[in-house]
């Protein structure tokens, strides 16, 4: 069976919809549907139950999806190795990361890698910290960067760096003069909050969890870009790692200060890779590059 048909099938299984899969794949929905019908005809079984508003894998579809994940991963790995022998650097890399890394650090790292691997394509997803390990284990992405916690079987840390949550504010803010900030001091100012779950490792500091429960945010958003602009316009302070604000901190526009809490300062970000499967050539090379970049980021302070 042709690799294109398998890729189309995998995306339909992930999206639960031919239309959404076609949008992700950037092809016509009719082309995706045609490949699915050909697959079902060749295998002599339905791969999906056609339910109102969605498609659900049949038992046969579940069996095929397991095979497809293994086959496509092996195909990409072998293709990358063959390309490497030819001196050609191609392939596809899929990554999931906490959204603060997607603002500045990861795009710059990707741009540097692109200079050496110009033919590689990428899929980069923002994901909740608690979801990233499962996405890697399931083969939905090659690897990910998330807050370090207990990893599922089949995963390991390739690199990890200190990533405490602290206070992000304009450089002219009164708290910017402090070396560290107590929780009660932060409550004296308008607070901007990011919508969504906190990192699963946040329970290492029950004092911070209790503090967060008392916060009444002036502005709540699921967009770090929105919150960054709100901070720059002096609408309030927010609680993040420094990694989503590297350029603004370097330019002196924004200041990051740690909390006066030893436990919140033990949080770490890690590059998580699978051990149950070999990464394709390009993904393995990019993971190695990111591991080095993470260590350099920590060394630079």
TrEMBL record:
Keywords: DNA-binding, Transcription, Transcription regulation. One of its GO terms (cellular component) is cytosol. It holds the Pfam family LysR_substrate. PROSITE patterns: HTH_LYSR. Residues 1-58 form the HTH lysR-type domain. GO terms for molecular function: DNA binding; DNA-binding transcription factor activity. It comes from the Bacteria. Belongs to the LysR transcriptional regulatory family. This is Transcriptional regulator.
